[in-house]
Give the backbone structure.
Amino acid sequence: MSKLNANIPEGSLAEKWTNHKSKIPLVSPANKRQIDVIVVGTGLAGSSAAASLAELGYNVKAFCFQDSPRRAHSIAAQGGINAAKNYQNDGDSTFRLFYDTIKGGDYRSREANVHRLAEVSASIIDQCVAQGVPFAREYGGLLDNRSFGGVQVSRTFYAKGQTGQQLLLGAYSALSRQVAKGRVELLSRHEMVELVVVDGKARGIIARNLVTGELERHSAHAVLLCTGGYGNVFYLSTNAMGSNVTAAWKAHRKGAYMANPCFTQIHPTCIPVSGDSQSKLTLMSESLRNDGRIWVPKKAEDALAIREGKLKPTDLSEENRDYYLERRYPAFGNLVPRDVASRAAKERCDAGYGVNKTGEAVYLDFSSAIERFGSEAAHVKGIKNPSEDQIKKLGERIVESKYGNLFQMYEKITAQNPYQTPMMIYPAVHYTMGGIWVDYNLMTTVPGLFALGEANFSDHGANRLGASALMQGLADGYFVAPYTVGTYLSQDITTGQISTESTEFDEAEATARNRMEGFLNSKGNTPVEAFHRDLGKIMWSQCGMARNEEGLKKAIADIRILRDKFYSDVKVLGKIGEMNPELDKAGRVADFLELGELMCMDALAREESCGGHFREEFQSKEGEAVRKDDEFAFVAAWEFAESDPGKSKLHKEELSFENVELNTRSYK
Amino acid sequence: MNFTINVWRQNGPKEKGGIATYKVSNISDDMSFLEMIDVLNEQLIIQDIDPVVFDHDCREGICGMCSMFINGEAHGPGRGVTTCQLHMREFKDGDTITIEPFRAKAFPVIKDLMVDRGSFDRIIQAGGYVSVNTSGNLPDANATPIEKQDADAAFDSATCIGCGACVATCKNASAMLFTSAKVSQLSLLPQGKIEASERVMNMVKQMDLEGFGNCTNTGACEVECPKGISIENIARMNREYLSASITSK
């Protein structure tokens, strides 16, 4: 427990960051040139941190496993980025963004970090506009905003349905500029496979060159992990195929604590699973819930007829439809937060009302919106007594202008026209709020090792609000790490270059090599993919949208069996010293097999329901989550012990709420 | 569904490659093209044959990593899709499908279907940015209003995913659609106008250095571009280039 000091600065909430910045030690330009920094990952957090630190004068090496930094999975974020600009004059403020984020996270995040995030949010928009990010604008030439779930203001900036792409390309351009200047050395198609700790400090990494297979040694005075989330532990998720936990897990095994690993976000509106060979799930933006209504048939026999293809959704009259979100949550209706919407869909499908072949899908219907928009448009155009057909055509045109690219994407994947028949959707794993434990300075429990963006745990508590992930990634990279990493590096001005010829580097490289040889020598019969798929099934059924003690205990036992089987029966062809994507995958799945167990342990230990973590034992009569603030208002930080995830030790960081009152979230 | 797959196998950049033929069966029409390749690869591993190496990541058409030349078309049949968004229902049961890498002098093959597109990164490094530091001490985002039309046009150019389908499709292996999309985005915005001349000169120079060909206005790039980037961008870049070469100091 003694190690877990969050290092939160003194002073009132609103002054902490300003005071902290004005007091931190600086590094002179001449000294910065003598200091090396490694940044792993080139998404929003990694690209922005690498560019910013290079601009300051540090020697930066940036690593990504993709062929180019521009391909990191931040690129796929759709909806937008929040910032407390209050351009709409609708009562937004830094405090309100802070408050919404704390409440949305179900009171399981750290006040000081969240307030800092809200403080720097406005600068992010200024920065991005200056870089040429083409945000959506109004006819007057000023920036446009929209609204997202769980808030009552319009503070989301966006670039159609491709906000993540535009922000990442902005950060990538800043990074490219530093590469051109020789300030950043770019190592794409490289994967971190070990962390090197020298005298208790992070001093480098072992990276596998994914083209040649060579294990390379890279030293630095500080290492920043900007490696994203671990949603792929569920096999099927909205993450990219390559998104993995390996870098974070290697750090965990070397002393970095993992915080709240069971806090995962299941996004309610994704395209349902269609078959056994499915490799990933595709998100349909939260913005669709502004106009789409979610329903299942009221009668179980109608649901069955639909599943068997004997009945079409459009055949069912209004009174035979159950708009269950509007029924259960009249105040927020279809716009309840993500965790609530996901659980409600699961509840209906589990009760037998699912509407696709697998029984795991609900409808997202735009027919009411098309009719409403169509009638309005007819009125504006002065059409008297418009026909149904006219209304439909006019309405469809408006829906297309708002959501056209999403409708097109849906049609490409499912071959169904969502203007004619309701979309089918189902929740899917999307984001992980948990991650590496960091203090206020974003430093982990290993000195000199930092974690930024989705890779850390700090800002979203037990549930992340829409459009806040992009905000956090860029806040950490552009505006927080450049200060706090510098503070740490101010102790290193006389250290000199870190040699890669040391026993610590030798050992780290040997560990990595031995692991890989283990996979190659196992000479089993089963390809890596099969183990990953099996792990995903365990995690999704027992540690997904709803969890209980019995299921979690079973999952832990099942994962341990699966892990043993993996090491004895995995089949990987080829060698270490060559390009070998299957070998890379084996390393990632091996780490997921350890992480999965820890996630279940964390879920088991947290005997309450909060945010994305729903324990069936802790719910009200109406099926709502019951939080237990007296016992569980803490961050669960797990220390790896005795080479076995099952022996991990729990440390607690108590959360104190001095500026907000802990309330029960109600959306009724 | 069952298919015969002809796929390009090549061990390394300097080695000779060739077509290998495999059969896949029990493919459902809901599968994406890459999921069909996953099935093929699992089958190959069980038969002790090295799986086919290919680039892929997001599998939702935005990262730009997947890059297959399918039956003679970049990203295969269909318009406005990347390889990962192509579904097997676009093919007929029993079809023979031929898969090759994106071919261009500036995209050397690394292995099988994987090519090196580092040349695209270097073109961006030559000037595809606005030279502002990331201090955050900048004018307020609304200090300079931008005409909606210009902002929307800049956005349309900025949606390029850098996959290289334009290069693979072009008979000259030209990267002008890719380069011009970035030149256009930034020259349409007031923030990018300041360095516009220098930018276009440097990016075009890098494009030539990398060994990409020139544009002869065939327009195939625009047709095969999964994001519908228009060749208007090339016209704009040519204009920018001409004006920059006349006025350069």
